[in-house]
Structure formats: structure tokens, C-alpha cells
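[step 3/7] fold_predict: job queued, chain A
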Amino acid sequence: MIVGVVGAGVMGSDVAQNLASCSHDVILMDHSVKALDSARKKIERARKLGSFHRKGQSGGTAALDAIERIRFVSDYAALAEVDYLIENVTERWEIKKPVYEVIDSICKDSCIFAVNTSVIPITKAASVTKRADRVIGIHFMNPVPLKPTVEVIRGYHTSEETIQRTDEMLRSMGKSYVLVQDSPGFVSNRVLMLTINEAIFLLMEQVSTAADIDRLFRECFGHTMGPLETADLIGLDTIYYSIDNLYQEFGDSKYRPCPLLKKMVDAGLHGMKSGEGFYNYND
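[step 4/7] structure written:
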């Protein structure tokens, strides 16, 4: 099976890496040649470090062969041959919507579209296409190759066949999943984005420091990472777009983005990927 991956950012490159390490031929598409070059270097670096696929994952090929399974392209036309497509562009509807209009006209009728999104409703994405029954949500967790479980979202029109084919593909990647119904933010991010946003309010109000907020979550609740560390990993721009989408979708003030979050995004402090967020990664 040939899998198309649209978007060569943090998530898209990880998804492509995970797929290739599990014997899938992958077409990684992004209009930005710079993004494709960065993705290639990131995947090659992972190969050299021996972290190409999750420890203990079955079915993975040798990393040296896996890197050769990925084609890096900047033209949508290359997606005409894919059997399954995973879209990973930024969490802004005005950017996602045109993508679905284009791929729906290019991809073959049998191709399934998986929306890799944190908050955007799957039914909304499906409404742009002529294949609503073949559109499903897959919320991959970061970093993709190391996370064994994903959140799968059934849109209003998603068919049982689409769920079955998605089940087969995820199992081939060594992943299990939890199937949920369509709602902005689904389960994980309805909770996570509120937690992160409230932690940023606490920091802005000088109730505590970033390090101590995260320490409380790690040491008191057993979390691997605190909310502000998690925000830096995901990307503060993604966090802002996600919480703002929830605010727009629900019209509920509890989702109002923290002003400090917006200020940091405007300043280019996006977390790990920019070198600085709530913590400094330039050392």
C-alpha cells in the first residue's frame, strides 16, 4: 500500500518515518522545499540514532531500507497513486480547507483521507470532499514513532469499511487506538488544551514558575511531562491555534486563549522547534 502524507512539519515527518519503518511506501508532500529538506534531515538523523521506530515494534524493516521508502515531493499530482492519505497541515481551517478541495480532485476514489488534527471536526473536513464516507480522523500523539496509541475519530458519514481499513493500517504501524465520536477537540484535546492554557494563565499571573508548575504534574500526578513542557514539545503556535479553534467552535469563554500564549507566538517563541518557548533549547 502506498501512503500519502501531506505536510512535512513535525507531525508529518514523524508519521512518514513511522510508516516507512513498517514497510509502507510513502509519498511525503509539502509545497515548501525547505520543509521537505528539514524533514529529510530529521528522518536521517533519527535513523543514525537508531530511533527510527518504536522499541519492540513488530514488522519494521531495517532503518537503512526504510529511509529509501520515502519520496519527498512538492507537487500534489504525485498523490494520484496513493491508497491512503494522512493530512498534517497546520491547525487553521482556512489552510486545511483548500488542501481537501485539491486532494479530493487528484486522489483516486478509493483513497481514504485521514485528518491528523487536534481540534478540527472531521465532519467539517469531510464536507469539503465528495467522499465523506472515506474521511476519518487520526489524532497521532507526539512524538509519533514512540507513542503506541492514537485517537481515531468517526465523522458523521465515516463508513465501517473506512474504520476497518484504518484499523489495518494502524496495526501495521504497531499502534492501538481508541475510537471516539466527532466533536471539536475530541476527548484528548478538550482536556489537554484547557490544562495547558490554564497553566499558562498561572505563569502569567505569577502564581508559580514554569519549572514548578511542571514539577507538580510530574511528581504529584505521575505525568511524564508537565503541561508547559508538553506545550513546548507540541509547539506553542499549534497550541494557540488549537485552543482558539475550540473557542470559536464552542463559543465558550473557558477556551479563551491566554494573552501570554498569544504574545509568545507573536514573538516567535514556539517551543522546541524554534529553540525557545517556556524553556530554552539553544544550549
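[step 5/7] annotate
Residues 189-274 form a domain with the N-(1-d-carboxylethyl)-l-norvaline Dehydrogenase; domain 2 fold (CATH 1.10.1040.10).
The two ends are 42 Å apart (CA to CA).
exit 0
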